[in-house]
Design goal:
By secondary structure, the protein is mostly helical. It has one domain. 81% of the residues lie in helices and 0% in strands. The chain contains 14 helices and no strands. Helix 4 packs across helix 8. It starts with a helix and ends with a helix.
Length: 424
C-alpha cells in the first residue's frame, strides 16, 4: 500500500532513506572506531556520574534520616539471627523481636554503665600519674638535651592560657554546637530504634513490598540478589563483632600487664573502633599508646605500640580472612579506598558504613550478573523464593513453619498467578 501511494503521488520516500543512511555511513567511516567507542562510553559514564551525583545530593539533604536508617539496617543484620532462633522454638516474631531488642539494649546499657563506673573510679589515679608524668617531662626539658629554662616553660603555659581566654567566644560556641549535636544524636537514636523495631518484626513484608516495584520478569533475580546481599551484611557484621571482641580482649590484656590505667574503658573504645576497619583500630590504638606514654612513660608506650601492631597484624592476616570468608571477602585496597571516600564524603558515619555498603553491593551485583533467575512455584516477588535462611532482609526465617501463615495474614507475601495476569 505504501509503495502504491508512493508511485501514484510521485513522492521520493524511497530516495530519502538511502540518502540519510549514506550520510550516516559516511560519518561513521570518517570517525575512527576508537573515537566512536570512546564517545559512546563517555556519554554513558557521564549519565551514570550525574545520576550518582543527584542521589548523593538527595542523601546529603537527609542525613538525619539516612544515617539512622543505615545504622538500623546494620543492627538488624546483627540481631535478626537471634530473632530467627527464637521463632524456631515457637515464639511469635514480634515477641521474639521485642525480647532480642530489650536484651540488646540491656547489654549495651550495662556495658556503658560499667565503663563509666570504671572510668570514674580510675580517674584519681590517672590524674596522679599524669601529674607525675608532667613533672618528669618538665625535668627532662630542663635537665635533658634541650636545657630549657623554667621561665621559658612557664611562658609557654601562660601563652596557652592567654590563647584560651582570647578565644573564649569560640570555645563557648563550640560548647553550644556540641549541645546541639547531642540533641541531634538523641533524635537519631530514637529514630534508629523505631526503624529497627519494624525491621525486626516485619522486615520481610517491607522487602516484599519493595520488590513488587520491580518488573515481574526480573523480580525473582532482584529478590534473590537482595537476600544474598543481606546475608553478606549479616556475615560482615557478625565477623566484625567477633574480630572487635578479640582485638579488645588481646589489647586489654596487654594494657593490664603493662599496668596502664583505665584498661576497661580503653578496651571498650578499641572494641567500638574495630567496627571501622583499619582506621578505627589505628585511631583507638593510638589513644591507648598515648595514655601509656602519659601515665607509664616512654618504654611502656613502645611496648603497648608493639602489642597494638601485633594484634592488628593478626586481625588483618588471620582473623578477617578466616571469619569473613568468601561471601564478603574484599580486597584490602578496596576496603581502604572505600573508607577514605566515606570519610571524605560523610565523616565518621561514612567511614563506618562504607565497607558494609561495599560488601552488600558486591554480593548483590555478583548475584545479578552471574546467577540465573531462580525457579519458584509462586509469585517471585512474594519473598518466598530460594535463598538462605538468614538472607531474609530483616524478616521471617525461611525455616519458620509459621512464616507462610504470617505472610498470608499480612496480605503482602502470597499472591496467585491469576492476580499477576490481571495486573498485566
Amino acid at each position: 500500500m505504501d509503495d502504491e501511494t508512493a508511485r501514484t503521488t510521485g513522492s521520493s520516500t524511497t530516495d530519502t532513506a538511502p540518502l540519510g543512511g549514506s550520510l550516516d555511513a559516511d560519518v561513521a567511516r570518517s570517525v575512527p572506531k576508537g573515537f566512536r567507542v570512546t564517545a559512546a562510553l563517555a556519554w554513558r559514564f557521564l549519565v551514570i556520574v550525574a545520576a550518582l551525583y543527584v542521589v548523593g545530593e538527595v542523601i546529603g539533604f537527609l542525613p538525619v534520616v539516612v544515617i539512622p536508617l543505615s545504622v538500623a539496617l546494620l543492627l538488624a543484620a546483627l540481631l535478626i539471627p537471634a530473632v530467627h532462633r527464637l521463632t524456631r522454638i515457637g515464639l511469635p516474631q514480634p515477641v521474639a523481636a521485642v525480647i532480642v531488642l530489650i536484651g540488646g539494649l540491656g547489654v549495651v546499657g550495662g556495658l556503658l554503665t560499667f565503663v563509666i563506673i570504671q572510668f570514674t573510679d580510675g580517674l584519681p589515679a590517672l590524674q596522679q600519674q599524669v601529674s607525675q608524668s608532667l613533672e618528669q617531662i618538665e625535668d627532662w626539658l630542663i635537665n635533658g638535651p634541650l636545657h630549657l629554662q623554667q621561665t621559658q616553660i612557664q611562658d609557654a603555659i601562660n601563652n596557652g592560657i592567654q590563647f584560651i581566654q582570647e578565644n573564649q567566644a569560640a570555645v563557648t560556641s563550640s560548647a553550644l554546637t556540641t549541645a546541639g549535636t547531642i540533641g541531634t544524636f538523641l533524635t537519631g537514636f530514637l529514630l534508629t530504634l523505631f526503624i529497627l523495631i519494624f525491621f525486626l518484626t516485619s522486615g520481610n513484608q517491607i522487602w516484599t513490598y519493595l520488590t513488587r516495584g520491580v518488573p515481574r520478569n526480573v523480580r525473582a533475580r532482584v529478590d534473590l540478589a537482595g537476600r544474598r546481599a543481606f546475608t553478606s551484611l549479616i556475615n560482615y557484621v557478625r565477623a566484625t563483632a567477633a574480630v572487635a571482641v578479640v582485638d579488645a580482649v588481646l589489647i586489654g590484656i596487654g594494657l593490664w600487664i603493662m599496668g596502664v590505667p583505665l584498661v576497661v574503658p580503653l578496651s571498650t573504645l578499641i572494641f567500638l573502633g574495630a567496627f571501622v576497619p583499619i582506621i578505627g583500630a589505628v585511631v583507638t590504638g593510638a589513644v591507648a599508646v598515648l595514655v601509656a606514654l602519659v601515665t607509664n612513660g616512654f618504654l611502656a608506650s613502645v611496648i603497648v605500640l608493639a602489642i597494638v601492631v601485633g594484634v592488628m597484624q593478626v586481625e588483618g592476616n588471620v582473623l578477617q580472612p578466616l571469619m569473613l570468608g568468601r561471601s564478603v571477602q574484599l580486597h584490602p585496597l578496596a576496603v581502604v579506598l572505600a573508607i577514605t571516600v566515606g570519610l571524605t564524603v560523610a565523616g565518621i558515619p561514612g567511614a563506618l558504613l562504607a565497607v558494609p555498603l561495599l560488601a552488600v553491593l558486591n554480593a548483590g551485583i555478583q548475584s545479578l550478573v552471574h546467577d540465573e533467575a531462580p525457579e519458584s512455584d509462586g509469585d517471585p516477588g512474594s519473598g518466598t523464593g530460594n535463598g538462605d535462611a538468614e538472607s531474609d532482609p530483616g524478616g521471617t526465617d525461611q525455616d519458620d513453619p509459621n512464616a507462610a501463615s504470617r505472610g498470608a495474614d499480612s496480605g503482602t507475601t502470597v499472591t496467585t498467578g491469576e492476580s499477576d495476569r490481571s495486573e498485566e
